[in-house]
């Protein structure tokens, strides 16, 4: 049975008013082939500038770095894999690998956790937008400026470092003892220094007696503001079985005065601990007043040595050595958290806002508590967002350089070094070995690549 087209109808394989799409043998007409080639050529021409830029800024540096890593420091002699072997023999590089591992394990996990908690909590407050703005604001500060800020924050001197000012303030609330690290006894017959750093009276004194204890070596500027003249207290006799005296600075400003005697212009040392010792045991403890006076009451009859314990001469508490070898890496990670917590919070909050609310309401109606909702509903539904945030931060911390370079002082910079910084130090920071530096760059690329591939695949799966 044959089918004929009605008069005026288009033939099979054609559309009205157009040429046949394909010939009878299935070949594409030359006109359509030329049109397809023109479209491909147009696409290539539009992509060519971007491809050239990508090749010049990404592909060529990668290939050049890989090739350069196979040559020696001067670049004239082929050494093969020697630079890669040297990396794992160099203690500085091993330290950098260890620190980079700490960064990868600690920083992204802490940031993701903090971002998640803050994103959930901001949904419960009224001024959530303002809070998110404040948390995100450190992202607007350059790493150079942030490093300078935290270099000052971590200063050892409590007069400059904010953290140590707080630490010293809290410490002094619980331990208000006054120390005079420069104080010492003048060579004489009243006080003798002991091996443990304390001072003892050269003679014994009994209840009802007076013994004044002179010290020198305390500059007038270091005396407490409430220190009063010791003359009146030194002249007062002991009452009954009281044992008393003064601890004073045996130095007259401007000169003059008599050694081992309390002169009118000489002031007492407040806050000094004085112990009455008998037969090697402490029988009583007193603390000097503003005029340096001390007194013991209720002592049993007999002779006592007076001791100034070594803690009177200890250095005052100066805070925590944040920039020391033990804490330098955690301190820099703390600065990094301050900068990037807002980034993690905003991304997770965006995922939280897209989460179906009917699931949460259904859970609440079923009697689930907030902790159960958070642990069993919120976190599982946010898992894709949390994974993207975590992997993005892993890629970022692998490249951290400027914070480490700025915050870490010179003597401990090697203790805080990471792979990116070690690569710069070896290549340009005094090492002048661009062969080894290129090998470190290749190692850094290899460590970052798996995380990048994971993120790209996840982005592709998330597309509709």
Fold and architecture overview:
Helix 4 (128-136) runs antiparallel to helix 8 (328-353), helix 9 packs antiparallel against helix 10 (370-398) and helix 10 (370-398) packs antiparallel against helix 14. This protein is an alpha+beta fold. Helix content is 49%, strand content 8%. The longest helix is centred in the first third of the chain and has 39 residues, at 30-68. It folds into two domains: 82-164 and 322-462, Orthogonal Bundle (MetI-like fold), CATH 1.10.3720.10; 191-313, no CATH class. The model is unreliable at 1-5 and 7-21 (pLDDT under 50). The strands form two sheets. A five-stranded antiparallel β-sheet has the order 1-2-8-5-6, with no helix packed on it. A three-stranded mixed β-sheet has the order 3-4-7, with no helix packed on it. It is built from 14 helices and eight strands. The radius of gyration is 39 Å and the shape is elongated.
Largest sheet: 5 strands, antiparallel
CATH architecture of the largest domain: Orthogonal Bundle
Radius of gyration: 39 Å
CATH class of the largest domain: Mainly Alpha
Give start-end ranges of low-pLDDT stretches: 1-5, 7-21
Q: In total, how many domains does the architecture comprise?
A: 2
Output the strand order for the largest sheet.
1-2-8-5-6
CATH topology of the largest domain: MetI-like fold
Q: Give the class from helix and strand content and strand pairing.
A: alpha+beta
Shape: elongated
Amount of helix: 40-55%
Helix-strand string: HHHHHHEEEHEEEEEHHHHHHH
């Amino acid at each position: 049975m044959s089918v004929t087209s009605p008069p005026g109808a288009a033939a099979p394989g054609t559309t009205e008013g157009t040429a046949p799409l394909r010939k009878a043998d299935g070949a594409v007409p030359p006109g359509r082939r030329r049109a397809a080639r023109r479209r491909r050529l147009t696409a290539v021409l539009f992509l060519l500038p971007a491809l050239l830029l990508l090749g010049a800024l990404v592909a060529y540096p990668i290939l050049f770095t890989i090739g350069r890593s196979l040559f020696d420091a001067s670049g004239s002699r082929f050494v093969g894999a020697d630079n890669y072997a040297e990396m794992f023999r160099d203690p500085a590089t091993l330290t950098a690998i260890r620190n980079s591992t700490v960064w990868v394990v600690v920083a992204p996990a802490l940031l993701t956790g903090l971002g998640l908690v803050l994103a959930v909590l901001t949904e419960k407050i009224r001024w959530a937008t303002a809070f998110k703005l404040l948390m995100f604001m450190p992202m607007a500060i350059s790493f150079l400026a942030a490093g300078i800020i935290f270099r000052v924050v971590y200063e050892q001197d409590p007069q400059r470092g904010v953290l140590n000012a707080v630490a010293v303030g809290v410490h002094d609330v619980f331990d208000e003892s006054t120390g005079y690290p420069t104080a010492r006894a003048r060579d004489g017959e009243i006080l003798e220094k002991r091996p443990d750093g304390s001072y003892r009276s050269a003679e014994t004194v009994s209840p009802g007696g007076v013994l004044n204890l002179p010290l020198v070596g305390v500059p007038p500027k270091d005396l407490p503001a409430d220190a009063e003249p010791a003359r009146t207290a030194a002249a007062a006799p002991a009452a009954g079985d009281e044992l008393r005296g003064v601890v004073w600075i045996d130095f007259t400003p401007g000169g003059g005065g008599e050694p081992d005697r309390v002169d009118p212009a000489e002031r007492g040392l407040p806050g000094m601990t004085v112990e009455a010792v008998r037969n090697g045991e402490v029988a009583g403890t007193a603390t000097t007043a503003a005029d340096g006076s001390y007194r013991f009451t209720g002592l049993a009859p007999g002779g006592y040595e007076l001791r100034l314990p070594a803690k009177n001469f200890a250095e005052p508490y100066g805070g925590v050595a944040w920039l020391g070898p033990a804490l330098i890496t955690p301190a820099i990670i703390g600065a990094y958290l301050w900068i990037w917590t807002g980034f993690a919070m905003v991304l997770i909050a965006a995922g939280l806002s897209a989460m179906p609310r009917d699931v949460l309401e259904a859970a609440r109606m079923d009697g689930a508590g907030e902790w159960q909702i958070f642990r069993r509903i919120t976190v599982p539904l946010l898992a894709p967002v949390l994974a993207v945030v975590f992997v993005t931060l892993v890629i970022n911390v692998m490249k951290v350089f400027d914070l480490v370079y700025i915050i870490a002082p010179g003597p401990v910079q090697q203790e805080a070094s990471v792979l990116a910084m070690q690569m710069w130090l070896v290549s340009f920071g005094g090492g002048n070995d661009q062969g080894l530096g290129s090998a470190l760059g290749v190692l850094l690329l290899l460590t970052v690549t798996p995380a990048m591939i994971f993120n790209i695949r996840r982005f592709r799966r998330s597309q509709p």
